[in-house]
Amino acid sequence: MARISGHFPAFSATTFLFLLLVVTHLRQCSGGGHDYHDALRKSILFFEGQRSGKLPPDQRVRWRRDSALHDGATAGVDLRGGYYDAGDNVKFGFPMAFTITMLSWSIIDFGRNMGGELGNAIKAVKWGTNYLLKATAKDGLVYVQVGDPLSDHNCWERPEDMDTSRMAYKIDANHPGSDVAGETAAALAAASIVFRSRDPAYSRLLLNRAVKVFEFADRHRGAYSSSLHYAVCPFYCDVNGYQDELLWGAAWLHKASRRREYREYIVKNEVVLRAGDTINEFGWDNKHAGINVLLSKEVLMGKADDLESFRINADGFICSVLPGFSHSQVQYSPGGLIFKAGGSNMQHVTSLSFLLLAYSNYLSHANHAVPCGDTAASPALLKRLARRQVDYILGDNPLRMSYMVGYGSHYPQRIHHRGSSLPSVASHPAHISCKEGSRYYLSPNPNPNILVGAVVGGPNSSDSFPDSRPFFQESEPTTYINAPLVGLLAYFSAHP
């Protein structure tokens, strides 16, 4: 596809119909008037509710206490800290690393819009990178998970009480995991940019570690789902393969280090690692759309003609998600929410919307738009599409429900989250055992602890939502839903 400028030709009848469909879609259920800065503050606060380990003195989610203080002890290493990925008590390294990558990207692109919340966003990144540094402290080895998911998911326990196995799982040369290692390298590299001017020594530590972890990922290729199938499947199986994480890691190392070797790696391995596959997918398992958007910035700035194919793929991604476009590959609910089959749909909503917004900014700076057939999708249109998704999350939807806990007056009360649904240690100091927690899981009562800022999996394809803990695909929050939303809310808080 050829690049086109921001000066558009006269509309054809097809173009007019397309734009009419898009405008109609954007107006559906639009209530407007959201306090994006309040939502931003709460979306970052959520990460404090997900912290594992020894909590710091400035911890703001006060109903949480220290937990998992012996993680790594069985392996003779210190693996305290990091994040619980969702409503359980396992630390899964793959989604945790993606969370840190997206938090870092949010700060890199939109940190200037965060105002007083920038410091809290940086703390959220560092809580994750401090853990990733521990998990990668030994060359040729990465700890990728702490906790046995089968025993953990068989209990309903507070993280402060858990007494299930805290086995530490690792990948090494004989048990490769290029996917999780590649994502970990991406997270460390992206975070190194965040700290480059704020803490140069820490930034160098992150970047040097990213280089080593990426070399390990590339040298010992394989999927961690094969090496650790019994521990990571069906929870975080890498269904998509490890190739995209190698390109993703290289892309972030190129951005962070400016070393030509990573650009040459990307160009050389573009076809081998299938850069053009599934261009409309982006999340903890599939990085393709993200790779294309990230690398397109340099192309649009006229600095990387050898990466032009990634810009073409990024344009294809945009066309694939536009509502009303004949080649759209993304489904929308009647109320206007992006919907993809599988669990926790809101992860797709926030990740794809982040890419729409990021790419719209790159296009704006280059004075370009995206050609989709005989129409031109302008940067302004992409921003409106992204805002529409954010507004849906915050309450502009058929149920008039905010899917962010604690935002607005009507939000989910019974989220699938152990710490939120069980009495806090302050109100119930006695230990609550594995099966004793079941009565709280099955209770029709609202959760006693409000996990402010948590965004749940969201409604189904017909915009209905069961506010019930057992419906975990709809009612469970995750860190990788919130991470890209941080960037979106930052931008819209500064551009209401």
UniProtKB/TrEMBL annotation:
Catalytic reactions of this protein: Endohydrolysis of (1->4)-beta-D-glucosidic linkages in cellulose, lichenin and cereal beta-D-glucans
Signal peptide: 1-31
Protein name in the entry: Endoglucanase
Keyword set, alphabetical order: Carbohydrate metabolism, Cellulose degradation, Glycosidase, Hydrolase, Polysaccharide degradation, Signal
Organism: Olea europaea subsp. europaea
Class of this enzyme: hydrolase
Protein family per UniProt: Belongs to the glycosyl hydrolase 9 (cellulase E) family.
Active site feature: 416, 467, 476
EC number(s) from the headed UniProt entry: 3.2.1.4
One Gene Ontology term of the molecular function aspect: cellulase activity
Manganese in keyword set: no
Taxonomy, superkingdom: Eukaryota
GO biological process: cellulose catabolic process
Residue span(s) of domain Glycoside hydrolase family: 36-489
